[in-house]
Amino acid sequence: MHILAADNVLFQGPCESLIVPTVEGQYGILADHSNTISAVIPGMLTYREPGGEKQIVAVSAGLVKIEDNDVLVLVDSAERPEDIDVNRAKREADEAREAMLQKHSIREYRTAQGNLARAINRLRVKASMHE
C-alpha cells in the first residue's frame, strides 16, 4: 500500500486493512479486494500494518486506486495526529469561515468551504488521538 500526499510519502508497505473516507461513506479494503477507483473526501483514514496497531491519518480530497492487490491512496494532504498543530488548524478554520461570509464569488466560496472542511477534519483527527 502507498499513501501519497502532494508534498510527501506518508506510508509505503504491507497493510492488513485500510478504511478510506469516500462520498459513499467509509470504504473498507482488505487483501484480494477487487480492482476499483474511488474518490476520497476529507476525513479520517485508518490502516493497520501486519500485526500492528491501528494508524489514523487526516486526509484531504484525492483518490484511492486498487489494482492487482496494490493500493494507492493519492491525496492533496495527509497528516498523522501528532503532526497536527491545533492552533494553526483553528486559525485556518476561522479564516475559512470569514472567507465564506465575504461571498466574493462562487469559486472563492467553494475554496473556503474546502479549507474549512480540511481544518475541521484535522481537529477531529487530532482529538481522536486522545480518545
Provide the descriptors you would attach to this structure in a database record.
single chain; 2 helices; alpha+beta; 131 residues; globular; 10 strands; ATP Synthase, domain 1
DSSP summary: helix tally? 2
Order of helices and strands: EEEEEEEEEEHH
Largest sheet: 5 strands, mixed
Architecture (CATH level 2) name of the largest domain: Sandwich
Neighbour order of strands in the largest sheet:
2-1-9-8-5
Q: What's the layout of helices and strands?
A:
Blueprint: E1 2-5, E2 9-12, E3 17-22, E4 25-30, E5 36-40, E6 43-48, E7 54-59, E8 62-67, E9 70-75, E10 78-79, H1 86-102, H2 106-128
Parallel strand pairs: 1-9
Antiparallel strand pairs: 1-2, 3-4, 3-6, 5-8, 6-7, 7-10, 8-9
Helix pairs in contact: 1-2
Describe this protein's structure:
This protein is α+β, with helices and mostly antiparallel strands. The chain folds into two domains: 78 residues, F0F1 ATP synthase delta/epsilon subunit, N-terminal (ATP Synthase, domain 1, Sandwich), CATH 2.60.15.10; 47 residues. The chain is 31% helix and 39% strand. It contains two helices and ten strands. The strands form two sheets. The protein has a five-stranded mixed β-sheet with strand order 2-1-9-8-5, with no helix packed on it. The chain has a five-stranded antiparallel β-sheet with strand order 4-3-6-7-10, covered by helices on one side. The longest helix has 23 residues. The mean pLDDT is 90.
